[in-house]
TrEMBL record:
Pfam families: GspH (PF12019), N_methyl (PF07963). InterPro entries: N_methyl_site (IPR012902), Pilin-like (IPR045584), T2SS_GspH (IPR022346). It is a single-pass membrane protein. Residues 43-150 form the General secretion pathway GspH domain. Gene3D superfamilies: minor pseudopilin epsh domain. It comes from the Bacteria. SUPFAM superfamilies: Pili subunits. Belongs to the GSP H family. The lineage of its organism: Bacteria, Pseudomonadati, Pseudomonadota, Gammaproteobacteria, Lysobacterales. It comes from Luteibacter pinisoli. This is Type II secretion system protein H. The keyword Lipid biosynthesis does not apply.
Length: 174
């Protein structure tokens, strides 16, 4: 008895391909926003870690250490935002450098400070500062690194005002 072959018709395959394509169109932006939110959270944690390292270096070296926004990873860049990258330096020696963040990630400093200077005693000279990273146009994705005047550093989810200010960032990059 002959066996009958089973196969899909071209119409059935086309319909399945359209359904898969429609699902991808819906899912891809959501995945992109989730990735940007994770990158912002990671950047905030990395900056908080680097700021703590800068504070320890200032104490250990008994001299000022600066954490600042930097576009080239070699020196502080006036007017640069933290998402352009940052460095930690003691005098002219760069102790740590981080590259620019992906385009979907923005940053905002509570007082617009492009740098934080730690004195030999570990205090952060100046006022309290909150540096927030977020996915652009997504205020709920903000994560902040906070530095107090006495040099204490902590991080976590951004307050709603900081998240909103970060997400509204319209700076032209690079």
């Amino acid at each position: 008895m002959p066996r009958r072959q089973r196969a899909f018709t071209l119409i059935e395959l086309t319909i399945v391909a359209l359904i898969v394509a429609a699902g991808a169109v819906i899912a891809v932006p959501a995945v992109g926003h989730a990735i940007a939110a994770a990158q912002a959270r990671t950047a905030s944690r990395t900056l908080a870690h680097d700021l703590a390292m800068a504070r320890r270096a200032a104490i250990d070296r008994d001299g000022p250490v600066v954490a600042c926004a930097s576009r080239d990873g070699l020196r502080c860049t006036p007017g640069a935002a933290w998402h352009h990258g940052w460095i930690i330096q003691h005098g002219r020696v760069v102790l740590s450098a981080h590259d620019a963040l992906p385009r979907r990630v923005a940053s905002d400093a509570s007082d617009g400070r492009p740098q934080i200077r730690f004195g030999p005693g570990g205090t952060a000279l100046g006022t309290n500062t909150t540096i927030t990273f977020c996915a652009r146009n997504r205020p709920g994705t903000g994560h902040s690194a906070v530095v107090s005047g006495v040099g204490r550093i902590h991080g976590g989810p951004a307050q709603s005002a900081h998240g909103a200010s970060c997400a509204a960032s319209r700076e032209i990059r690079r």
